[in-house]
Amino acid sequence: MKLAWIFLLILVSLSSYPSLVWAQLAKSRNTLLDSKRVYSDRPKFPDNGAPTGRRKGGTSRDGCTPLNMPITALVPGEEIAEKSKSFLTLTISEYPTFWVYVPDLPLNARFGEFLLQDENDENIYRISLSLPEKASVFGIPLPQISQYTLKTNKNYQWYFKVFCGDPQKISDYYYVKAWVQRVPLTSKLESQLNLAPSTRYTTYAANQLWQDAITNLANLRLNNPDSHILIEDWRLLLKDIGLSELAPVLIMKLEKPQKNVTQSN
Predict the structure, then answer these.
(1) What residues does 85 pair with on adjacent strands?
(2) What is the rounded distance in angstroms from the CA atom of residue 1 to the CA atom of residue 6?
């Protein structure tokens, strides 16, 4: 009888303060989610001896209007003195997306070009781009066409250029260059990704799959621009490669037109 009365009192208490009870549960749940969100082992992307490129494209060049900030490839790298170096990145994607930052551009520098080559300098994919006027971060996807498929364990180099004038003419331009390699998807990694499908970028980052980490998180941010968790994780991810100053920059999708898609062997 005494136990019955105790049980009844508990039920009455819960029904009398439902908002308090659910608030506590929600708080505990959010705390748990936040603890899982934080990387247990902060990812690092060091120079691994692979080919290096140029992460930042400078702010001034003969014949070009000076830029307030350099165009930047969103890849791991380092800045030593006035030299900017990019490191090779990894991906499991056959058709990765390549991310760049472009500052405010003058009227005569609204045209760009993306070029993907193999390690023998043979062109794989090339496209001309119309660039946004305002400073932004955007991705350049590799079309999902078999002729552009990245082969596993092969190095590829990519360039992004911003022309100072008419891109159809020989002119000065700013550019960045980086390297990427596709690696096989292992059963262990696949299992890890399936455990947390909504935050796969944390798994990619922990496994140093930079191209996949930034693409997954950038796309999530595009679809959820007001998410404080995604905003903070974006800041942390860029901080890991020394580009935290670009975290507040608008992420956007490139608007068409894009033209002159070519492939050559």
Answers:
(1) 78
(2) 9
In a domain, 30, yes or no: no
How many domains is the chain partitioned into structurally?
Answer: 1
Interatomic CA distance for residues 158 and 98, integer angstroms: 9
Predicted pLDDT at 171? 72
Nearest Cα neighbor of 71 from 45, 119, 107, 109 is 109
Locate 262 and state its tokens: 């070519």
Q: Which residues does 23 contact at the CB level (< 8 Å), separation at least 6?
A: none
Give the model confidence (pLDDT) of 210-225 as tens digits: 999 999 999 999 999 9
- For 12-65, the pLDDT digits (tens) are 333 333 333 323 323 333 333 343 444 444 455 555 567 899 999 988 887 788
Q: Is residue 247 part of a domain?
A: yes
**Are the C-beta atoms of 94 and 181 separated by less than 8 Å?**
no
- Sorted by sequence, the CB contacts under 8 Å of residue 185 that are 6+ apart come out as 92
Range of the domain at 79: 72-262
- Residue labelled with tokens 């009192």: 9
pLDDT digits (tens, 9 = 90+) for 79-113: 887 789 999 999 999 999 999 999 999 887 888 99
**Within a domain: 112:** yes
The pairing of beta strand 251-252 with beta strand 136-141: parallel
The CATH number of the domain holding residue 155 is 2.60.40.1220
Q: What is the pTM of this model?
A: 0.80
Token code pair at residue 151:
């082969």
Residue 64 lies in a domain: no
- 99: enclosing H helix or E strand: strand 97-102
